Amino acid sequence: MRRIRAGAKSIGASWYQGRRIEPWDKNLALERNKAWILKKIKQGYEIVDIGIDATRSFRSPFYEMEKKTLREQKYPAIPYARISRGKGS
Amino acid sequence: MSNLNESFFSICIERFQFLIKRFECRRGAKRATGGVYTLTYQNSTTAVQVGLEWREQYVYVELCRLVDGRIKDNPVVIGPESQLTVFNLEDVLEIRNPELKLSAEHVARRLTVDALRKTLSHYARALEECASDILRGDFTLFDKLEHIVKTRAKEAAKTERDRQPYAVATEIAGERQRPAEVREPVGK
Which of A75, B61, B146, B161 is the least buried, fewest Cβ under 10 Å from its Cβ? Predict the structure, then answer.
């Protein structure tokens, strides 16, 4: 998450910061994340792809869901490297 | 702050006390930003960041080689030439004692205070047992860790290229307002 925040800030993007869920409910958390992405797609926002956190050995289920949603919607994601080029990131 | 988050800090302080006693670390402030709770220990060469990401119920321990006395985050996008200074304890365990790695099933579970205590206790013991050289400033292992991370990054990029002719989509950083002109899809 620290990495996502740093990457997003460096290109002037915002990022998903889901509200707390008490008690924690994974399915609800995934649903909210998905709803956020679908809303941004509907609004015509440009989605920026930051790539995986390669220092993590476990992939995030949220990351999988985000990829799947984009594929289903056939919505393009711009690689972060393309946007950050020349910004020292 | 919830019970789990309060417990995270108190268990960390209890279980990672050895970093202060054995490795001359000092403990930094408790941090809570955007659903991420972290506690950092640091000596003259090395930092240890213990974290809890609330959204994913993900607990992690990172080892950092200090640069000019400070933690220098890895580049957002890791390529072949990237200089890496932060690594996950899980990768240290992969090299030194794979039996101590936590399973993917374990990581995906909902955290209770008891589960959090077990995970943090496990990581504290594993850190003390498998990373004492790093904690004393010997970063010889970092070459191997860098290889693991760069291989993972390379394979992930290749998988994405193979899977998607239309768009390269991995982890979503966020969104920006689409400019007025129409953009061509990535990879088209």
Answer: B161
